[in-house]
Amino acid sequence: MSSKARSRSTTLVVFSTAFIVVWLIVAAFPFLWTVWGSFKVEADFFSRTDWMNAVTGPVTQARTGSAFTGAGYHGAWVEQEFWRAAINTLIVTVFVTLISLTFGTLGGYALARSGYRYTFWILMAALVFRAMPHVTLVSGYLLPFFQLNIWGILPTTIIVIVAINQPFTLWMLHSFFLSIPKDLDESAMVDGCSRFQAFRMVVIPVMWPGVITTGLFSFLLAYNDFTVTAMLLSQENQTMVPKIASFLGSTQAEGKVMYAVAAVVSAIAPLFLLVLFFQKQIVSGLTAGAVKG
Amino acid sequence: MPHSTFFKFIAPSLFVMLLFIALPILSVAYQSLFIEHEQILVEVENCGPFGCETELRIDTEAMDRANEESPMGRFNWLGTYANTSHLAFAEVGAIWRDSDGLIPALRAMLNLPFYKALIFTIAYTFIVTPLGMVLGFFVALGVNSIPRLLKGPVIFFSLLPMIVTPLVGSLVLFWMIDSSGVIGANLQLLLNDPQLSLKASPTLTWVTLFLYGVWHAAPFSFVVFYAGLQTVPDDTLESAMIDGASRWERVRFVVIPHLMPLATFIALVQLMDNFRVFEPIIGFSAAANATSLSYLIYNDLRGSETPLFGSAAATSMLTIIGVVILLMPVLIRTWRDFNRKV
Q1: Which of A26, A45, B26, B219 could form a disulfide with B162 if both were Cys (CB 3.0 to 4.6 A apart)?
Q2: In the CATH hierarchy, which fold is given to the domain comprising B123-341?
Q3: ipTM score of the complex?
Q4: What is the pTM of this model?
């Protein structure tokens, strides 16, 4: 900022500040609006007469005696058993993250340390796999899974998401391990360690920053997945995102759209916290791929 | 690293990728050559108090037996690819013969489900990707110039549209632009058109989906460009200024060339992600006016009573061909770079 080349004229400062303010409104307002509105009744949140109703909540006041109501949340979590979906999401995301990272660190480390030509081919294949639309892959699984009778259960979904995650995880950890000096593990091997011992005793202690960053993205991918979970899970095993999609059909018709709104806010909340606590890692992870890949 | 050690390390990762990514592609290719069994009908005589009548019924027992014997269905070779809901050779031929001019012909093509989805998917990919990058670039320029103290919170809110689940994000926007939502209702008032709604016309639906796409895609470009801006050398900027370059010229001739490699990376990632556009179509309930290739496959598998595996597989194969064409320039370039290095 001290450099003269970076100083700005007043008009430009005003203009760019205004632009950023507009962008912030566009980016954040929809979420704040929905979080606020989820504590109102439908007649207020979807008010045809006056949009200010969603802010002040006169109908909510009249019906419940208070300007805020947890009716939507009660309906979604208790009546429609959204808690079940939340538990399933927890199971899926935890296992996907753990398994992806285990496979990914081993594979990424090998790719970063082997000088042979086939590593290039594996990375290229991973890039092509990364580009495959998930739904095309799912249409390949569905029939075999029906026949093997493993459709609809959580373990199947977990391993499928791990596999879909793998190309991205491999690329990210591969470029991360490239940034760890080779000398480190090679000197351990000179001292008599096997490759695996060197990995365990020398590389593992220094790899955590990269692994945590990659883990965040594995978590996000599993958490946000709709395609795989919607097609591979049976009704009672659904995770949050397909559950919300199924709310759309059933509850919207019965005038219970606030259940869906409450469920949506419940699904956003953990992501808010995640960005709040791990903002630095997310930003560095997004850029790591760009700078090194 | 010796081959055997390398293989031991990469085995689990390679195994899941082969089993759940490579094998399904083969499975899809094989499935696309088959089609569901024809319905086996039997004549049943129904005798009631007013005499007897015969009616045709589906023979479920025979159907079950047929499905048991060959669960894939009947062999159809490339028939599924050619039928009306895929490449529709017969219909396309008729359209080109009968319609005069390119525009009416394209309009007629939009009535064929596969081409409708293909055109939307391509339009979405090639409109949302550049617009998202341009918006992200300007946000990065703007954020770069605000006081340091504000940067953290601004980045936090800027990340939200990208981090939030696509289905959830599109629902949040959908409820706002719904005819009784805050934006939709006020637009109706403002334009004095009580009938105005997202579903009113295909154009409006397309524009809404594109806007959603840009909103969802911009944060990624923003973060990457913002990181790139931190590494623009001050010396070059200053010497450009001494040479008399205006602010815009400095951005045009110093900053943008510096960020170019990042832009290629972002374009690659965004093209791949936008080509599989799917969730917003569900979130905005837009399927009547806009469908994508991914949506067609989903609809074949979940929309009808019995999943249409053959049809879904054929669309999947065509989508995979599309992805390979999309990636071709990148693959060729990487291959050349790699050969030069070796």
Answers
A1: B219
A2: MetI-like fold (1.10.3720)
A3: 0.90
A4: 0.90
